[in-house]
Task: inverse folding
């Protein structure tokens, strides 16, 4: 079958992006602190961005004759992003660090997809994933800068 490795990674991203939105939504709800008014709406922007990526990746997977995961059970079974109960005990920096961790994980998955789609000659998927990874790396940079840290991005 054609593009099997690419389709596998795209479906992994379907599960991971679905879970990432849930975890970022949790940070959005449980966030407290002096930067709340600025960071609370930023989490909305991140969720919108990831949902857009999720839709584009799912539709690309369908275009390649794949079948995207579409149930909570499938997302939970296949995601590499852990769930944890929400807590007001975390401060804003804890939430931001967790969001950065998620974005780093997603960037790595995009890179895997970039490599697989290049290897399999799927230029369209390759382009989609390069664009998505570019935005995620910018998010990492900006969140790290918010915390007074360097981006520490390792471009593959």
Result:
């Amino acid at each position: 079958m054609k593009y099997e490795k690419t389709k596998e990674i795209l479906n992994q991203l379907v599960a991971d992006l679905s879970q990432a939105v849930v975890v970022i939504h949790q940070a959005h709800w449980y966030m407290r602190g002096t930067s709340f008014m600025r960071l609370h709406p930023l989490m909305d922007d991140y969720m919108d961005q990831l949902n857009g990526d999720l839709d584009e990746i799912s539709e690309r997977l369908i275009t390649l004759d794949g079948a995207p995961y579409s149930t909570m059970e499938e997302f939970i079974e296949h995601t590499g992003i852990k769930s944890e109960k929400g807590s007001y005990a975390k401060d804003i920096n804890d939430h931001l660090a967790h969001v950065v961790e998620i974005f780093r994980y997603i960037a790595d998955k995009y890179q895997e997809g970039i490599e697989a789609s290049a290897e399999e000659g799927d230029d369209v998927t390759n382009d989609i994933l390069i664009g998505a990874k570019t935005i995620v790396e910018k998010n990492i940079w900006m969140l790290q800068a918010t915390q007074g840290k360097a981006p520490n991005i390792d471009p593959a």
About this structure: The radius of gyration is 16 Å. The CA atoms of residues 81 and 105 lie 8 Å apart. The mean pLDDT is 96. DSSP finds five helices and no strands in the chain.
